[in-house]
Every structure is written in structure tokens, then in C-alpha cells.
Design goal:
The chain is an alpha/beta fold. It has 9 helices and 5 strands.
């Protein structure tokens, strides 16, 4: 039997079935099953034969085709504002590790924090039939989030929060307050704040936390 590789035609499911003397549907169910009993398609010995031959000839299950049958691709899409952000890079590594442990895969796209590009990247991910989205570039207006909710697309926000939507974030208000206390404790009484983007909850919450705490301590702000 031929082996998949450069310059060779791909081994098909029917090829495997013919080599093993099994019906193609039996081979398909075994390769798409999660247990050795292959969800009733065959016994453990037969399932092992099928998987061993598939590995030997380099046959791999097409995740998109599998997704059409199971309605799951075991794939997450992650959207971030920029890949150069060290914090987001570390978060993505954690996402990938957790996804791998759950037998999922994740891929990331960069929106540059531009709504038009964010929408385009979101549609690309949905066209790949991802099981869900992890959104790291959410804007406080929440327009695209409302649309995803109406379309029943599973998603969670990371790093940024928008009221009414699930998110995994830090307490940015507290972070701003701690920064204010740090400056106050070092004797600074008049300071200025260079705030971040007004559409990002991280910037809004940190600024609010800083200003509120610094004024409460008796400090002055322009």
C-alpha cells in the first residue's frame, strides 16, 4: 500500500478499508471515535489495526470534514489587538496549553485594534468553523459582541471587559489605585495621568482607579 508523502497521491479512507477488508464506514467511525470500542463500530483489536495502518501510511483525519459530522472542530480562534504585546503573548501561551490539555487547538489573529479588521478576522475564524472565540481586542461599544450573541457564537473576552459579556480579566480599577498609592507613598502630591485608549476597559478602569484613589488620598490632578 502506498504511503502519503511528497509526490504521491493521498491515501483515502477507501484505500484503508480495502487494505483491511472492512467497510469504509467502519473505518471512518473508528478513526473519528474517541474510545477503543469506536462507539460500537468495532472491537478494540480491530480499532487498533485500523489506527496502526492509518499511522503507518500517514493517513490523518481531516478536521474540517470531521467537524461537518460532529459539528465540532475542537478549534478555538483567538483575536488580539497586536502580537507584539508581551502580556497577550504570555496569555496566548496559556490558552494554547489549556486547549491542548482538553484536546483542542487554538490559533491567533491580530486585529491591530481596528474595528473593520477585527470584523474581518472574526469572519475568517467563523468560516473555519471554530467551536468558539477568545476575544482580546473588545471595544466598549460592544457592537460586534452583540452581533455574535445574536448569531449564538460562543465567546469569552480576555484582558478587556465589556459589561454584560463573559470575561477573564484582572481588576484594573484596583491596579490603578495601587499605582496611585505607590506614588503617594513616595511623596508625590501633584501628578498627571497619561491614559490609554478610551474604547479599552483596561485604560478606562485603570485611569478611574488611579484618579479616584489619588484624590481620596488628598493629591492633586490637572
Amino acid at each position: 500500500m502506498r504511503v502519503n508523502g511528497p509526490g504521491s497521491s493521498a491515501v483515502t479512507l477507501k484505500d484503508l478499508a480495502a487494505e483491511l477488508g472492512l467497510h469504509p464506514s467502519t473505518v471512518s467511525r473508528i478513526l473519528h471515535a474517541e474510545t477503543d470500542t469506536a462507539r460500537g463500530a468495532a472491537g478494540p483489536a480491530t480499532a487498533q489495526r485500523v489506527r496502526a495502518l492509518a499511522e503507518k501510511v500517514g493517513y490523518s483525519v481531516n478536521p474540517q470534514a470531521k467537524g461537518l459530522r460532529t459539528r465540532r472542530t475542537h478549534l478555538f480562534g483567538v483575536i488580539v489587538p497586536r502580537l507584539s504585546d508581551l502580556v497577550l503573548a504570555v496569555i496566548y501561551e496559556g490558552i494554547e496549553e489549556a486547549a491542548d490539555e482538553a484536546n483542542y487547538s487554538a490559533f491567533v489573529m491580530n486585529s491591530r485594534d481596528e474595528p473593520t479588521l477585527q470584523r474581518r478576522k472574526t469572519e475568517i475564524m467563523l468560516s473555519r468553523r471554530v467551536d468558539g472565540l477568545i476575544i482580546g481586542d473588545a471595544h466598549l461599544d460592544g457592537d460586534i459582541l452583540n452581533e455574535l450573541t445574536e448569531r449564538e457564537v460562543p465567546f469569552v473576552l480576555m484582558n478587556r471587559a465589556v459589561p454584560g459579556f463573559p470575561s477573564a480579566t484582572c481588576d484594573d480599577t484596583l491596579g490603578g489605585a495601587l499605582a496611585a498609592e505607590h506614588l503617594w507613598d513616595r511623596g508625590h502630591r501633584t501628578v498627571s495621568v497619561i491614559a490609554g485608549e478610551p474604547y479599552a476597559s483596561t485604560a478606562v478602569d485603570r485611569t478611574h482607579g488611579f484618579v479616584s484613589r489619588f484624590r481620596a488620598l488628598g493629591g492633586e490632578l490637572p
